[in-house]
Design brief:
It catalyses: bromide(in) + chloride(out) = bromide(out) + chloride(in); iodide(in) + chloride(out) = iodide(out) + chloride(in); oxalate(in) + sulfate(out) = oxalate(out) + sulfate(in); nitrate(in) + chloride(out) = nitrate(out) + chloride(in). It is a multi-pass membrane protein. Keywords: Cell membrane, Glycoprotein, Membrane, Phosphoprotein, Transmembrane, Transmembrane helix, Transport. One of its GO terms (cellular component) is apical plasma membrane. This protein has 27 helices and nine strands. The chain folds into two domains: 403 residues, no CATH class; 143 residues, STAS domain (Transcription Regulator spoIIAA, 2-Layer Sandwich), CATH 3.30.750.24. The protein is mainly alpha-helical and 689 residues long. Strand 3 and strand 4 form a beta hairpin. Helix 7 crosses helix 13 and helix 7 runs antiparallel to helix 14.
């Protein structure tokens, strides 16, 4: 039987688009109010804030995150190749802006190790091109803590090649100029993606790609910090293969290791790892995580200051960190042009990590977020702070987990964290002058534990899905051995190629009948299936299109043990020989048979079926080549007196077949060619004479 299809009313897309345009362009007070409340979600939830119920959890989580942010901000400045003050600016402004514009109640937005690394790689490259020395291990200037001090000992007149920059701008000034231009462009890209609703781009970053990218970047981060751990002075490597080159330089200069830094690093790593492990083991008993990083920094700073480790043992220290805020400055347009391409992967990675974390915690705590608004939020978390000497930000998993574990309810906690950072910015920053860089490197390396533990998951990942494991390995290797941006691109392309290959060479099978039922399954996968006499049932587990047409035909001919084209050619050749013998008056055939026996020879022994049923349940769509392929096999098998029946076609496939003329002009034969189940097609084939 044929089910009657519903008649769909054709929609005039032009009128619909015009109606939407008129609606979006109209302006009413209510619409303006809704727009503002959508653009600033804080206006919706803040008036409904349950102070007695939420305030304690928000204040506690805000204080804990603020305490964690300070040492992390100072430490991640090493990754970004910038002074610690700029990391503190970034942490402050990001929390305030996301409080106003974010839709997630729990994520912690601020500095993130992977984003800092990507910023640092661009900064290092541009510093090198501008003629600066990348060696940042020179003795720090004592300074007076004012904001106007600059690294005048490393000033280059590069305004001859780069227009628009003051010739007296030193290395630090140029570095933050590059970082702010890069951050501004990344924010612009994110806002544009939000305007044009391009959030679907994140779908092409699979979990395997993201995990591989994070692990590969973590190896790069680890490698970049080793020189600080052991106190050697080697040039900061740039370009492809940075990881390998850095390790070669480390082993070449290992004899120059600073014993003071080595001992300090060993003690700090033992303390941090032990505290983290104990915290993970007894986290259900602790009301809030121990501020281990802050304790280590305070103790290490005191020891370094009173032990005069910089003066006596030449241990590298952070140097002067000024207080207050530098006057805002518009990012340089000429620098934006130089880093426009670098900002694109930065924007995508920042957005993807933020949205994925927001969705994960929204699902966990039963509320919804708006992905498009998240793109606007993280975009403006980059655009606005770039005027205040800040660099790119993103949501961070570790700090978000801490927020939720300490009772966070809303983004009020982000404001509390920003106030803690502000306190450091205004009053406490100069106290970290004597803090050793090796201590900061230890904090960074210990924070990578989660990403590096992904190596332990490889066997389990391989057991679940071998292709996803291969994607992870390729992305991780490319990110670590080539560069982070290239690694991300390689991961995306490779994962898409894996999908293409899997659709080009999908599973194919001949089906057998499950005994005493109307169901059919793969006879190579299941036992005790019975074959249907005179009927072959073929399953193709992918869409049928131009890229897998040949594989479809080869699999069909191989499994049915019959190529209709070769069989037709063989018969024509045989008939031609018979005609030649008859013309010569020989009543014996070419095989020595009589004419009456010729008919038996025309039917080959290998054809043991009279009907072919194609199970289309896994064919989601057909393109023009796919329709023509089905028409081709219909014609070829018909020449051999074998009928082709289609079963389990979805409406999209049926429509494609109708438009392609598979059922003829008036669809008169459709009822004898199309069936809604395999069993119906088999019964019809059995009834055929």
């Amino acid at each position: 039987f044929l089910m009657e299809r519903k008649t769909h009313v054709k929609v005039n897309r032009k009128e619909v688009m015009l109606a939407k345009l008129r609606k979006s362009c109209s302006c009413t007070p209510q619409k303006l109010k809704n727009f503002l409340m959508d653009f600033f979600p804080v206006l919706r939830w803040l008036p409904k804030y349950r102070c007695k119920e939420y305030i304690w959890g928000d204040v506690m989580s805000g204080l804990v995150i603020g305490i964690i942010l300070v040492p992390q901000a100072i430490a991640y400045s090493l990754l970004a190749g910038l002074k610690p003050i700029y990391s503190l600016y970034t942490s402050f402004f990001a929390n305030i802006i996301y409080f106003l514009m974010g839709t997630s109640r729990h994520v912690s937005v601020g500095i993130f190790s992977l984003i800092s690394l990507m910023v640092g790689q661009v900064v290092d490259r541009e510093l090198l091109l501008a003629g600066f020395d990348l060696n940042d291990d020179a003795p720090p200037a004592s300074g007076d803590g004012s904001l106007q001090n600059d690294n005048l000992s490393n000033t280059t007149a590069f305004n001859l090649t780069i227009v628009g920059i003051n010739a007296e701008c030193g290395k630090e000034c140029y570095a933050i100029g590059i970082a702010t231009a890069l951050t501004f462009m990344a924010g612009v890209y994110q806002v544009l993606m939000g305007i044009f609703r391009l959030g679907f781009i994140s779908m092409y970053l699979s979990e395997s790609v993201l995990d591989g990218f994070a692990t590969g970047a973590s190896l790069t981060i680890l490698t970049a910090q080793v020189k600080y751990l052991i106190g050697i002075k080697i040039p900061r490597s740039q370009g492809h293969g940075m990881l390998v080159i850095t390790w070669i330089n480390i082993f070449r200069n290992i004899s120059q290791a600073n014993l003071c830094d080595v001992i300090t690093s060993a003690i700090c790593i033992v303390v941090l790892v032990t505290a983290k492990e104990l915290g993970d083991r007894y986290k259900h008993k602790l009301k809030f995580p121990l501020p281990t990083e802050l304790i280590v920094i305070v103790v290490a700073t005191l020891v370094s200051h009173y032990g005069k480790l910089n003066e006596v043992y030449a241990s590298s220290v952070s140097g002067a960190i000024p207080t207050g805020f530098i006057p805002p400055k518009v990012p340089e347009f000429n620098l934006m042009l130089r880093v426009a391409l670098d900002a694109l992967p930065l924007a995508i990675v920042s957005f993807v990590f933020t949205v994925s974390l927001s969705e994960m915690f929204a699902k966990k705590y039963s509320y919804t977020i708006r992905a498009n608004q998240e793109m606007f939020a993280v975009g403006f978390c980059n655009i606005i702070p770039s005027f205040f000497h800040s660099f790119a930000t993103s949501a961070a998993l570790a700090k978000t987990l801490v927020k939720t574990s300490t009772g966070c309810q809303t983004q009020i906690s982000g404001v509390i964290s920003a106030m803690v950072v502000l306190l450091v910015l205004l009053f406490l920053a100069p106290l970290f002058y004597s803090l050793q860089k090796c201590v900061l490197a230890c904090i960074i390396i210990v924070s990578l534990r989660g990403a590096l533990r992904k190596f332990q998951d490889v066997p389990a990942r391989y057991h679940v899905n071998k292709v996803d494991t291969l994607v992870w390995v390729v992305t991780m290797s490319a990110s670590a051995l080539v560069s982070t941006e290239i690694g991300l691109l390689v991961g995306i392309v490779f994962s898409m190629l894996c999908i293409i290959v899997r659709t080009q060479r999908p599973r194919t099978a001949l089906l057998g009948q499950i005994q005493d039922t109307s169901f059919y399954e793969d006879d190579l996968e299941y036992e005790n299936l019975s074959t249907v006499p005179k009927v072959k049932i073929f399953r193709f587990e992918a869409p049928l299109h131009y890229a897998n047409r040949n594989y479809f035909l080869k699999s069909l001919y191989r499994l049915t043990n019959l190529d209709p084209n070769l069989e037709a050619a063989r018969r024509k050749k045989y008939e031609k020989k018979e005609k030649q013998h008859l013309k010569k008056g020989n009543h014996r055939t070419a095989n020595g048979l009589g004419i009456g026996e010729t008919t038996l020879q025309l039917v080959p022994k290998q054809i043991d079926f009279q009907a072919l049923v194609v199970d289309c349940s896994s064919i989601s769509f057909l393109d023009t080549t796919g329709v023509n392929t089905l028409k081709e096999i219909l014609k070829d098998y018909k020449n051999l007196n074998i009928s082709v029946l289609l079963a389990c076609c979805n409406p999209s496939v049926i429509d494609s077949l109708k438009r392609g003329g598979y059922f003829g002009k008036d669809f008169g034969c459709m009822q004898e060619m199309l069936f809604y189940s395999i069993h119906n097609a088999v019964l019809f084939a059995k009834d055929q004479k």
